[in-house]
Amino acid sequence: MNNSVRNTARLLGAGLRALLVLTVLCGIVYPLAVTGIAQALFEDKADGSEIKDRSSGQVVGSSLIGQTYNLPKHDPDDAEEAAKPDLKWFQPRPSNGLGSNSVNTRYTLLLSGATNRSADNGAVHGRCAEDAEEGTLCAQVIAARDAVVADNSTTGHRVEPEDVPADAVTSSGSGLDPHISPAYAELQVHRVAERNKLDVERVEKLVADHTTGRTLGFMGEPRVDVLELNLALKALTRS
Fold this sequence. Notes:
mainly alpha
């Protein structure tokens, strides 16, 4: 019996020592080491890829998460009032996410997710008809296309429906994509120039300067970070 008790005590002691050592290594030493390396080598990314407004020095967002640029609501407490885009800014791609906060509708949550509708949702013979059933992906795409055409057509420049790129009318898989295609950015140039009383050429150069090419020259697609572009636009309108 004594040997059994001693063996049990020895096993319990070994287990507790292993627990203590692993807790220190995995719960303290490893996280501190990883955090230290990340801060030393990738400080910007480790801190969330924050973007600061150069004029104020304040953090205004992250290069990894998209933002909306909407006009203030007439009634901030009205969850049913549809947000309207502020057309003096470059607009991001649609963000349909997982919807609004159903628990407390006075506050908007940062939700990630896609619509989960298939590419042919609402399509007839593989094509989206103008009279697509309400609530289908086709209906959303057509409504978004018409809005893009209406919003971006100016007095001297008409946007044609066939000029609207796919990212202007569809959300990304996460719903939080911070980038748009150069084609969508260029489509917005005339409207942004008109609303801000700027020369079209200056706004075109702004887009070109903030267009990022493929990663390592072959991965992904050229892209434009909307937040960084709008911060540059803000600085340009103040100059």
